[in-house]
Amino acid sequence: MHTSRLEKLRHHLRDAELGGIVIMPGNNMVYLSGIHSHISERPILLFLFADQPPAIIIPTLEAMKAEDVGVAPERIFGWTDVDGYRAAFARAADALQLNGRVLGVEAETMRVLEYKALQSVAPELVLEYADGLLSAMRLRKDAGEIAALRKAVAVAEDAIEALLPQIKIGMTEREVAGKLVLALVDAGADAPAFRPIVSTGPNAASPHAVPTDRPLQSGDLLVIDWGAKVDDYASDITRTYAVGDIDERSRAYYAAVQAANAAGVAASQPGASGQDIDRAARRAIVAAGFGDYFIHRTGHGLGMGEHEPPSLMEGNTTPLPVGAVFTVEPGVYVPGVAGVRIEDDVWLSAEGGVCLTTLSRELRHVG
Hints:
This protein is an alpha+beta fold. It has helices at about 5-15, 25-35, 65-70, 85-95, 110-120, 130-140, 145-165, 175-185, 250-265, 275-285; strands spanning about 20-25, 45-50, 55-60, 75-80, 100-105, 125-130, 190, 195-200, 220-225, 230, 235, 235-245, 300, 310, 325-330, 330-335, 340, 345-350, 350-355, 365. Strands 4-3-2-1-5-6 form a 6-stranded mixed sheet, with helices on both faces. The chain has a 4-stranded mixed sheet with strand order 8-9-12-20, covered by helices on one side. A 3-stranded antiparallel sheet has the order 7-10-11. α3 (about 65-70) links the parallel β3 (about 55-60) and β4. α7 (about 145-165) packs across α8 (about 175-185) and α9 (about 250-265) packs antiparallel against α10 (about 275-285).
């Protein structure tokens, strides 16, 4: 268990007048307890309280994970596939006196399955939204987290540098994506942070395009969005490359996005809000005449999740705290023609924004 994080959590719980919080498998569980698991047909719930030790409902086949991080054996409510989970929920409800308690819950993660199972054994249990509480905790990264993020960035950068010489005209988007996944593993990633986006020509006009069998052609702009997961932390980087020779129109798209990326990074200063950074980046694209083609926010938070708070967008006027890590990723997407995106990972230090990514933002040619 992460003792210091649990102590901070207890303070947050008391401030929110919550008796505890119920955690599903995923990043929050890893962040608070070190338990790695995943959401499946087998329900797992970690209970963290303001006034008592942790407890968990977990399949017996994974119970060792809870033991290894120090959950007391009597507070591990195991169950087998043969017996089913309902009896374990009932034992936990009785031992933890859940009925009548007010607990926080990850509203964006908890399923009807877990909710109904809790309701059946503790009908007077009150569950309140607690996603904001957890996000606030994870927003400020400590030195260890920044080191992990730097490592994830370095691995992703090593992977792309290994990939670029392999890219040839005629190769498909799907082939490039496959080679990138292998390069990430070879470079030291525990796994890709997400399924890489590799899109060319008109396909690149879709920000979240899925790689297809379209072959790379001379004159294309090639968008690659990728990241590495290392020691539980994710990098998220995008670069746009010229396949062979490109026309002046494509160069103009690229120059606008390059200027917007630089403006967004420069605006990443203590006290700035997500809206401030978004406006700085957007101004550069509007000035170039492509404002209608910048169709998403400027960036998002980064950490254990490849997408987490804060959101760099119009309307988010909350000042970003020192310690926040986020992407700056403006883009231009012209339907039926092309797309460009340049994405960097930025850490907000006390002195200002620090780019964790080191790859050049100048236009590079491949193929």
